[in-house]
Design a protein that fits this description.
366 residues, alpha/beta, Isopropylmalate Dehydrogenase, 2 domains, 10-stranded mixed beta sheet, two-stranded antiparallel ribbon, 14 strands, 21% strand, globular, binds nicotinamide-adenine-dinucleotide
Length: 366
Amino acid sequence: MNLNIVCIPGDGIGPEIVAEAKKVLDKVAKKYSHNISYKDILMGGASIDACGEPLTDEAIATAKAADAVLMGSIGGNTSTSPWYKLPPHLRPEAGLLKLRKELNLFANLRPAYLYKELKEACPLRDDIIGSGFDMMIMRELTGGLYFGARSTKEVDGVVTAVDTLTYTENEIRRIAVKGFDIAQKRRKKVTSVDKANVLDSSRLWRTVVEEVARDYPEVTLEHMLVDNCAMQLVKDPKQFDVILTENMFGDILSDEASMVTGSIGMLSSASLNDTKFGLYEPSGGSAPDIAGKGIANPIATILSAAMMLRYSFDLDREADAIEAAVQKVLEEGYRTIDIMPQEADKRDRVKQVGTAVMGDLISERI
Ligand code: NAD
């Protein structure tokens, strides 16, 4: 298969972690006979420095022409970097928001998977963790409260702020279809999260999700109110497979779910449009505090590359191979600094490695 991938190394640790993901992808390409071509584009601070804006039209056109985009991260130290003295529309994150909009990326996927080797990083009790958990938070990314009309005005001497939460049935249907498609590749269960006891938008959400579910008889659908879901995520996370929800609920629940897995350096993510196209990136930021030191954890980016193979190219066997290689390296006791055990006596049992060695170890195990 020919894979035409645009890479956005970005800022901070971005170039270091993207280099390791490419290393692993190259190994996959060699082993399974694929041709991967890469093209880099600038975004964020790197683009501000080179082009005076966080994302150029030329870079957008290049990204649109690709099959998928693999990103590191963008941004710098928000207190000290000169990029944050610029007006908001010229700052690094404006590039990412523009790219998401241009590429119509409405479905955000964030897996929350607990590796048994990293159980100590999970803040939940052992009896709750059990044999671990593996869920996918599917968040609608371009509608709802964050994109509705808003205003703040003074009426009769009282300041009033208004935000509006709007969803059309079409916006709900397209994310629901993605959610059920993804559940079919997993354990075939969708938990649709809403606040249908109060909100009209949630009642429409529920109706449309039920309509979509009829096309997926092999997938089990359940509905859960968002407040209950927030509790269930820490009470019994094992019950979840795919959590399907709207923008703001997903924003909050995906952060909660990621915290129960421990390290930010392990968390991959994908943002998809209504074709197979997607933008794949680690959930963390550009970590300016450790940039250039060769110690960043590349696993989240490597797992994002696995998601790219699975969701943009339907290469499940190749994605499985990457995930199994990550699992193996952890089982063998290799750790980057962020996932080292806190207790001194447990450190003897593991081996600390840097970014490039972690990439080598994973690619050798493909
Ligand atoms: P951050 O995620 O960059 O860092 C938070 C902490 O996690 C730091 O201590 C960092 O060293 C650590 N960390 C993050 N990724 C790691 C990795 N792969 N390996 C080891 N440790 C890792 O968050 P922040 O410090 O709040 O933000 C820094 C910059 O990143 C800001 O400019 C912010 O806007 C940007 N940011 C970008 C994205 C993105 O590109 N999508 C997302 C979030 C934040």
